[in-house]
Amino acid sequence: MNIPVNFLEGKSRIKILFVRSPRHVWPIVNESDNFLLPLAYPTLAAYLREHVPGVDITILDCCVRQMGWKSLTKYIRETRPDIVAIGEKTVFYHEGFRAFELVKKEAPQAVTIAGGVMYTALPQWTLDTCKAVDYVVLYEGEETLRDLVTTLRDGGEPSSVRGIAYRDADGKPALTPARPLIENLDDLPMPAYDLAGMDYYKPFGHLWPKAITVQRSRGCIANCNFCSWRIQEGRPQLVDGKYVSHQAYRTKSPLRMADEIEWLYRDFGVRYLFWVDGTWNADHDWLVEFCEEILRRDIKLDGWWAFVRADKLVEQDAKGILPLMVKAGFRHTLLGAEHDSQQSLDYVNKGLKDYNLTQEAFRILSEKHPEVFRQATYITGLPDDTVDSIKGLLKHAHACNLDFAAFHPIQPFPGTQFYDWALKEGLVEETNFEKFDMFYPSMRTYHCTREEVAEATQWCYKNFVAKKPFQYFSRMFSPHPIRRDLHRWFAFAIMRVILKDLKETITQGSRFKGFSGIDTLWKPDWYDA
């Protein structure tokens, strides 16, 4: 049996450590932009600080501090935290496991708590796979983490804490009943940005300079069947021994959000916002009040980046709200175009009634607000995709007059409806979650092999610029600074990938992949240090 000994019982002061462990980087993105602030950590830290007495909280982001595994080992050995909490994405789940195992070796008295999208999606698997994990906090973590810490300190039974996975008396994974969501997000304290080491994030960055992550809402107004984000922030329910997530959407008030941003702007020197909301432009009235408040307070941001929906953007233009958004700081839009047909959008449950609205939204931005960088994502490798249908997405991207288009093979992320369906259909051929990197497909289609999906996806990337080179390079001299700088950065990043691959081909005798090198995560120099 592997039942954790409760070393927290009766302790008057508890040292809590939130960790983002060392990891590889996306080659197309500058290293500093790879590692934006993991907002969940200061959010959870603020709630614990306010509601649990006698806690000393540290947020350790190894990535921005360039702390490799040797440095992290030394840190854990010297500080001996009482609780270590780690949340992870699917592709980096193994880095989290490695960190948990390190903790149990160097500080065996520490309680280890997993959370976030990957461990929430597969809680029993997490406990079975990594014996160094003691508990999994499922879905929304503030109240659950508070109750778990308090219960352990008081010597209570973990089974009394709602919303966790733990090991029962027989050492088998068990789930407790779901915890209700926090309905009023204004009740949450401001994220503990003061604990986050803000100077590590804001001084540099090519894509998002002096940027910090912010969030106005939880959940999403959409119900896309492939989205693990929506699952993580949805309304959980325990059904027949398994958690399921239902659509839910909550938002902070405009004034509360303006207070948060003013604090970041005035006290921390933040000048660029990276919104991590599933649909930032979900409601018109909220945007009007928020943008007017930002302008009234004279918060002069360089800009902000946001996920938006096409139908909402078209409506906001018709209502005269879009110019206000741009005036307040809207400078970089990422819109999930997904595919080029209504049938495909309906298949992924996008909820967009007319796929032509995507092209219309980008036409509006192009003609009326050229200072806004126009980016879209496309999904390749849907079950009915062929090589020709994937390559056809490039035509749609050019018709939208995009500044940058990202083409990603669909990944059946654990916990999503699409994951369960794709497994049942027998389409999933890669089951190692480390490979779920959104570059190389993990599943075939009814008509294509994984290799054919990958090649067609790469063709779209290569030809996005190659088909219209003069258009792209002319934008490197745009009068609008964010669009100009982003075009220059992407050109530099692509050339850097090609040159790095050429060097490795010459010095190591590896196969030259050229532009295809963007689908391989890079190991930073400091990773093992």
From TrEMBL:
UniProt name for this protein: Radical SAM domain protein
Limits of the B12-binding domain: 22-159
Pfam (any one): B12-binding
InterPro entries referenced in this protein's UniProt entry, alphabetically: BchE-like, Cobalamin-bd, Elp3/MiaA/NifB-like_rSAM, Methyltransferase_Class_B, rSAM, rSAM_horseshoe, rSAM_sf
Highest taxon, organism lineage: Bacteria
Keywords noted in UniProt: Iron, Iron-sulfur, Metal-binding, Methyltransferase, S-adenosyl-L-methionine, Transferase
Domain Radical SAM core residues, every copy: 206-451
UniProt-recorded Gene Ontology molecular function terms: 4 iron, 4 sulfur cluster binding; catalytic activity; cobalamin binding; metal ion binding
